[in-house]
Design a protein that fits this description.
Radius of gyration: 19 Å
Mean pLDDT: 74
Length: 103
């Protein structure tokens, strides 16, 4: 069978629980009453959202649900059902072979 099976479903549910709790908290504050819930913090709210995206992306990569061409990892076998995300990095100044040294 293709798609996300039960083995990965639990991991994705754990990752999505974070954003679900936060979204419910925001909904309560803005839609029901300002006495409860959480106000969206313009300073750190987008950082939290970005962190969730990184958490979800990392979970999808770790469980090999998606494959990103610019990240060094074995290429998935043809017809394996992986979703490949590719980007055009032509002209990029960043070495993709792990030779970047800082300092």
């Amino acid at each position: 069978s293709s798609g996300i099976n039960a083995e990965y479903g639990g991991t994705l549910i754990d990752a999505c629980r974070t954003i679900l709790v936060w979204a419910i908290d925001l909904f309560i504050h803005y839609a029901i009453t300002t006495d409860y819930g959480e106000k969206f913090d313009m300073t750190y709210g987008f950082l939290q959202l970005g962190g969730f995206v990184m958490l979800l992306l990392g979970t999808l990569l770790y469980n090999e649900i998606i494959y990103i061409a610019c990240i060094a990892s074995p290429r998935p076998p043809a017809g394996s059902g992986y979703t490949e995300i590719s980007a055009d990095f032509e002209g990029s100044q960043l070495p993709l072979d792990g030779s970047l040294r800082i300092g």
